[in-house]
Amino acid sequence: MKIGKHFDDYEFACNCHRHEVDENGHNKLDHIIDKRLVDLLDAIRERLGVPLYINSGYRCPEHNEEVGGVPNSQHVEGTAADITYDGIDVDYLAEVAEACGQELGIEGGIGCYYYQDFVHVDVRGYAARWNDLD
Asked: Which of 88, 97, 90 is nearest to 113 (CA)?
C-alpha cells in the first residue's frame, strides 16, 4: 500500500523477518511511520530524480538491539530511515536531505555512513548531525 508519493508501506517494515508477511512475501508494517518522515523522503526523491532505497525503516526493539542500534533509536519510533540510491554520493544525499528538511520545516537527524554508503534521516524535532568518520 502506498504511504507516500514514492513509497510503499512494506519498504518501512522491520527487516528482522519475525513479523507477518503479505502476499508478496514482504514483512507487513507493524508500526505507524511518521508522516513527516514520508514527506521528507518524498521530497528527497523528487530532488534527486532517482529512486531512493530504504535500507532500514522501522525496527522492532529486538531487531534494533541485534543491529547495535541505540536503545532510544528513532527507528523504533517510526521516525527514521537509512537511505541510499544507485551511485550514491553520501555528502550530496546529506545536503539534499538538509535542504529538503529546511524547505519542509522539519528538524531532525542526519547521519552520514561513508563506510556503508547510506544516510540516516529522522524527524526527531531538533537538529542532530554525525558521521562514521568521527
From this structure: 90
pTM tops 0.85, yes or no:
yes
Q: Over the stretch 8-60, which tens digit does the pLDDT of each residue have?
A: 988 988 888 676 666 666 556 556 899 999 999 999 999 999 999 999 999 98
Q: At what angle do helices 90-104 and 35-48 cross, to 10 degrees?
A: 120
113's grid cell: 555512513
Which CATH architecture fits 9-131?
2-Layer Sandwich (3.30)
- Rounded Cα–Cα distance for residues 69 and 42 (Å): 25
Nearest Cα to 96, choosing from 27, 48, 30, 39?
Answer: 48
Q: Which among 63, 64, 81, 82 is positioned nearest to 73, based on CA atoms?
A: 64
